[in-house]
Structures are given as structure tokens and as C-alpha cells.
Amino acid sequence: MKLFCLSGHPTLPCNILKFKSTTIMLDCGLDMTSALYFLPLPLVHSPRLSKLPGWISKEGSTVLEKELKECSGRVFVDSMPEFCLPETELLDLSNVDVILISNYHCMMALPYITEHTGFTGMVYATEPTVQIGRLLMEELVTFIERVPKAQSAFYWKNKELQRLLPTPLKDAVELSTWRRCYTMQEVNSALSKIQLVGFSQKIELFGAVQISPLSSGYSLGSCNWIIQSHYEKVAYVSGSSLLTTHPQPMDQSSLKSSDVLILTGLTQIPTANPDGMLGEFCSNLAMTVRSGGNVLVPCYPSGVIYDLLECLYQYIDSAGLSNIPFYFISPVANSSLEFSQIFAEWLCHNKQSKVYLPEPPFPHAELIQTNKLKHYPSIHGDFSNDFKQPCVVFTGHPSLRFGDVVHFMELWGKSSLNTVIFTEPDFSYLDALAPYQPLAMKCIYCPIDTRLNFIQVSKLLKEVQPLHVVCPEQYTQPPSTQSHRTDLMIDCQPPPMAYRRAEVLTLPFRRRYEKIELTPELADLLVPSEVKTGISVSTVSGVLRTKDNKHVLQLPPKPVPPPATKKRKRVNEEIPEQNPPKPLLSGAMPLDQFVQSLEKHGITDVKVEDTPEGHIVHLQAEDTLIQLEEDSTHIICDNEVLRTQLKDLVLKFFQKL
User: How many angstroms separate the CA atoms of 473 and 453, rounded?
Assistant: First the structure.
């Protein structure tokens, strides 16, 4: 069993598991942090960005002046943003049989894999994962395509030139795998290959292994996966949460008794408490709007935003914010808010029960009805007519490189009354803000990540007790900025196996057994013999037939009788005679009784020697040796008559099967 690691990002995994005769891809996360190296894509012309000076090297070279622009001491690529794909050269991805998706954040690279690698297999995911994943992809494509750039930048990727660049461009890695965004046509084609599954549903893969999704408690439809054969079990845990939020709670019991547990997608901010961050978010928001400022919340169109809106719903009246408008701007804002209300069976019990009252499970439905929350596809059209300040705007993209958020950063960035609050943990907020410097608006970092922290992981591993744990190398050592915090790493016995990008791990257990079925006809012929109390054994002779990874033992075919003809057959056409199999022997030789038996038959000159393997019985007068070992008996004798007599004596002390 081998694990191929295609992604170096611990929360955006992409691994391939070779298990029995199947090749299974576990998630296909897309690393979008590479977008931070690029200039933002403004929705309307930005004089500030267009006037940024080109970068000139210390040697005075102007080769990259058109591709690279300088802003407040940082250098950015002036081109359409590119994303870091999973490794595609480690093995032939056209051989992948299935792709298992754990949550909608971990499927963003799917179109690159299904449409450009020769992949012909099946993709499995839950319905909310597919639908919300579609919204995320649709939003991403819309953000990129509606602001096309005339020029492309590629010279800066040249290894010789990159060495001359200032940091962080000089340190950018895996440049050969960076690609531009896919198209909506590729998105639709990729999603058409997905087979929908439900929690605990069991799916057979070619008769070799069985896969089953389990609720992971992180987001709508998010799941962990169990991959098992009759005698081996692998658990894949990715993006899980034990906190009580809107999704169904995590299923932990089904993870027990795993031979290998592959662990990815832990919290990116292990020292931050999500509840504390929510409180900080609300108080900073209230403080800004009371002083007449606007609040900008860069976010994804699904996930944490539901919890933020629910928190604000409970907070705005008590904080005196009932007259402040909330705007949610995204090409998929309407679909996201509607989807969250219709996936009732994927919600926690508390929200499920509201559906039967009937009440909407999420309070943002009431916010929309009372006009406190308004949603728009973009800043153009109706929004420009309804726009009132001070206000709170939720919009994407959290990287601040594309989407409507770019416009608000340019619009509000010059005033210290305004605040931008970062709640998504996927991007460094300082790097995200870099191309907007100098910035007057206040910046608050309230990252909300409900995924498992290291304390919860330690408790989980003690409960489910896998034989081996496999995880990204980042989880096996303290963070580089807090090297003394040994509590911020996975601690288990045996120590976890760590992987990194483009590495192949041989997982530490071997397959030892295979299940074989007997046909009823063959089973009917078995005659069990009791060898020990409660243990019976039977010999079986049959033909093993293997098809679709299932093994069946059948009756051996009966010999075909020769045709009744006088014509003489050639020698090589003779049907070989089939002798019945010799019986197997069971039991241990009682040495004293055997010697007594020899004496009864006139063999008295007997000498017994002990050996590491058993005993040697030396019949001195007959010049014969009998070697008695644990699993064999040898009679060494030149006299054929005596040898046959001794064989019959030996056989009396064993049970024939």
C-alpha cells in the first residue's frame, strides 16, 4: 500500500492511495495563496494601480519592467492571477480510478484534473459539497473573467531571472505547476463526472474495496472517508470539527479500528478560539459603524458567512445596529443563501427540527425579509441605487486580488473611519493588504477556523486508536514562529509518518489475508474433524475462480469420459488419472506411547535423543532413524518392509483429516 502526496498544503490536500488493485485520489485542493504574488484586478479603472512603476533590477535591467510592478517596497506580477496545482508528474493521473471529495474547499482543482490529465474514472461527493463547490468555482471564474488583462507575464518565471528577483517572488515555489483559472465549460464538465453519495452509504470499488463517507462536522455535506477491504481499514480524516455549528456532528465511532489513519485539514490558527473570534468580530464591527465608518468583510460565499450572519442576527438589536444595512455581494449570493436553507438533512439536529415547525433553519432568512440583509450579484446595477453608508459589506475574494472586494478596498482604504475585518484563515492578511499600502483604514484579524485543533486531535486519536497515523510534515513539528510550542503538533504512539509534496510513502502494514467464498455444492462435501475442543478442521479440494476481485472456490471439474470409439488414441491424448488427495495428518506424537508400541512389535533396542526441532528415535539393531519434529516425521530406513511397518505405527498416533 502506497501514498503519493501531490500537495504540500496541509489544509488543501491532494493525495493518491494505492490500495489492493485500486488507485484512489483523496481530495484535489487548489492552493490559491499564489494569487498573493499578483496585483489586484479592479472592477473599475484604478489610477493608483495603473500608475505603479515597473520594477528595475539593481543592475538596471528593464527586461521585467512590463511584467512586474512595485508598490510600497513590494514587487507584484502584473498579470492574470495563477494558482498552484497539485503535482501531476509524480504518477500518471489517467490511471486514477476514483476521486473522493471531503468538502467543497478541497475540490477546487477538480477541473484541472478531470479535464487535462486523461482521467476517466468516477468522482464521489455529497450533494451539498457539489452544489456549494459549484458556487465557489462559478464565483471564482466570474471574478477572473469579468476583468480580463491584455498582457501575460511569464518571463519572470525563468529560473535564471527569478533568482534575481526580490523576496517574496524569489522564494515562490512550484512555478511550473502554476496555471490560470479554468473556464465555466470545464467546471460543468468536471462536475458532470460526480456521483452523489450520502453519509454512511457503502460503495463497492471493483469488488476490491468498499468506501463510505462519514459526517465530519466541518461544513455542509463535509465528510471523512473509510476505505476498507475484508481485513484492512484506512480512515481518511480531512477538515473535521467537533464544535457545535450548523453541519451534522462528526461521526467518530466509525473511525475506530483503522490500520492507517490519514489526517489532514486541521485548523490553521490553533491558538485562536472561534467563539472568542466571533465576539471580537461583532465588537469591532459595532465600534466602527457607531463612529460612522463602514465595515468590509472579505469572505467566501458559503461556510463561515452563515455563522457570522447568525451571530450578527443575535447581536444587532442589543448593540443598537438595527438601522445599519448589511450587503452580501457575490455572483452566487442568492444561490448560496437559498441552498443553505434547503439542505435540511445535512444540518445539525437543532436546525433540522426548525424545518418541521416550519421555520427557516438559518436566521438570515429573517434578515432578508426585514431588509436588514440585502444581496446582489455585483456592485453594478441595483446595488449602486440601494447603497447607503455607513454599512457592512460581505464580499469576495478573501485574497483581496479579485472580486468586488478590490473596489471597496480602493473606495474605503483612504479613511481611518473604515475597517476591514479578516475572518477567513486561508490567506496571510498582511500579504493580502500589501498592494493597497499605504492604507488608512483599520485592519482587524479575527480568523474563524472551526476545524480540529491539536488538543482535540490528541483526544480523538486516543479514542479511535489507529495502528498508524499519516499526516503532513507541518503537523509533526511546532510552527516555525513558535518553536517552543510543542503542544502545537501531533503527539501519538507510534510517532506519525510525515509526508511532503511530491513524496511517496510506503504505508507500514501488509495485506496478509484474502476472503474466499465456497460454493454451496463444495461446502456440502466438507466433513469437519475436531482437532481440539471447539476447533474443527476439514480439508477441501477445489478450483479457485477469481473475477472482479472476488474469489470463489468451486468443485473441481469431473473428468470427461473418453468417447466410445475403436480408434486408437495417441499417447499424449490419454486423460491423466486423477488420484484422490492424500489425507492430512494432525496431532502431536506421544513419545512414551510410541516407544511402547515399538516394543510390542519386537523393536526393543530404542534410544531417544532430544533435538532443537523435536526428537530422534534411534532403532540401533535395525540401523534406522525416526525424526519427530513439530510439523513433520521422517523415517530413514533401508529395509522397505520395516519402513512400511514403522509408517503404519506412526500413522496410528495421528488424526487423519
Answer: 16
